[in-house]
Write a structure and sequence with these properties.
By secondary structure, the chain is of the alpha+beta class. The chain folds into 2 domains: 5-229, 3-Layer(aba) Sandwich (Rossmann fold), CATH 3.40.50.300; 239-342, Nucleic acid-binding proteins (OB fold (Dihydrolipoamide Acetyltransferase, E2P)). 24% of the residues lie in helices and 34% in strands. Helix 2 packs across helix 3, helix 2 runs parallel beside helix 4 and helix 3 (108-121) crosses helix 4. The structure holds adenosine-5'-diphosphate. Adenosine-5'-diphosphate binds at residues 14, 19, 37, 39-45. Its EC number is 7.6.2.9.
């Protein structure tokens, strides 16, 4: 039976410092949950609490509906892959992959079969006799994944598995992981990353962590389109966050009236609009300002425009004749492309 993961108010502290604060989170069976957040926000600690390498100060961890809080790691039946591969250098690839199975005393014939299958799934069948030092970083990580899959885990924990790889390999491996997930739809995956592209690409849902706490949880689309707070908005995809006042006459940015669809959270709010949804030239919600910075990014230009002391970013299709620093320009955005957030929630 495949199992999901449930954190029930899990708190972890080191020397009295709370590094994971009352985490409540459920990962459904077969789901990929990306745990996304900056370094030090508690992601790895959460993952280690599932693996059994840290003991919560309070709260419970459930796997497949079963309370495993008091079980040692080896009895949790979990596959785990970390950033630094952690292969045994003196063992051949096939021995590395067989390691967990031998520890579980799986019959020899079955070990052979499972190792072969895991190596095939990860595209490493041709390398079974090599030793780790004879492999590239990407290949070593594939072996680490094969080793985790060989034990046929219900739950796979991945901790920044791609961050030691260069950009090109990272993107290939991301596609590989997506393929593996399609081939193993029953395996529940908790994927720790600080990289929003990995989270958006792989996560069925994303849990956003900030300073030991869960900030938001939702599908990539939900969190991107309608982020719950300023932290989520800026961490996931980058955003213009502009202070506005909300009254009976409408929503005002400085002296300008702005049209926004959706509810206002209060009299002071933050207008959130993604840079690629801000256009150059006339249109709805027109903002006049001065170019303070312009960056050419290949297919787009990023304009930073000073609008009455607010910095507004616009990512526009590459311009033949881009404006220069100090030029006056007009920006605009559609009412349905902006959302209003509660002001200053990040600084509580
Ligand atoms: P993330 O994975 O989001 O980068 P971690 O969960 O690794 O964050 O760490 C969260 C906080 O806990 C950090 O401040 C880190 O320094 C601290 N921490 C992690 N492991 C230990 C440990 N074994 N002893 C003391 N502090 C730790």
């Amino acid at each position: 039976m495949s199992g999901g993961i449930r954190f029930d108010s899990v708190t972890v502290a080191y020397d009295g410092n709370v590094v994971l604060d009352s985490l409540d989170l459920t990962v459904e069976p077969g789901e990929v949950m990306a745990l996304l957040g900056p370094s030090g926000s508690g992601k790895t600690t959460a993952l280690r609490a599932v693996a059994g390498f840290v003991r919560p100060a309070s709260g419970r961890v459930f796997l497949g509906g079963r309370d495993v809080t008091d079980l040692p790691p080896y009895r949790r039946g979990i596959g785990m892959v970390v950033q630094q591969y952690a292969l045994f250098p003196h063992m051949r690839v096939e021995e590395n992959v067989a390691f967990g199975l031998k520890a579980q005393k799986v019959a020899r014939g079955e070990i052979r079969e499972r190792v072969a299958l895991a190596l095939e799934m990860t595209g490493m069948a041709a390398y079974a006799r090599r030793r780790p030092r004879e492999l590239s970083g990407g290949q070593q990580q594939r072996v680490a994944i094969a080793r985790a899959l060989a034990i046929r885990p219900d739950v796979l924990l991945l901790d920044e598995p791609l961050s030691a790889l260069d950009a090109r390999l990272r993107s290939d491996m991301l596609a590989e992981l997506a393929r593996l997930h399609r081939e193993l739809p029953d395996v529940t995956i908790l994927y720790v990353t600080h990289d929003q592209v990995e989270a958006l690409t792989l996560g069925d849902r994303i849990a956003v962590m900030d300073r030991a706490r869960l900030r938001a949880c939702g599908t990539p689309r939900e969190l991107y389109r309608a982020p719950a707070d300023e932290f989520t908005a800026s961490f996931l995809g980058g955003a213009n966050l502009l202070p506005v006042t909300v009254g009976e006459e409408g929503v005002f940015l400085g002296g300008r009236r702005i049209k926004v669809s959706g509810e206002a959270p209060g009299a002071a709010a933050t207008l959130c609009v993604r840079p690629h949804l801000v256009g150059l030239g006339d249109g709805p919600n027109q903002l006049a300002g001065t170019v303070s910075e312009i960056q050419w990014r290949g297919s787009t230009h990023r304009l930073c425009v000073d609008v009455d002391g607010n910095r507004v970013m616009a990512d526009v299709r590459e311009l033949k004749d881009p404006p220069a620093h100090g030029d006056s320009v007009t920006l605009h955005f559609a009412p349905e492309d902006a959302v209003l957030l509660a002001a200053g929630v990040t600084d509580d």
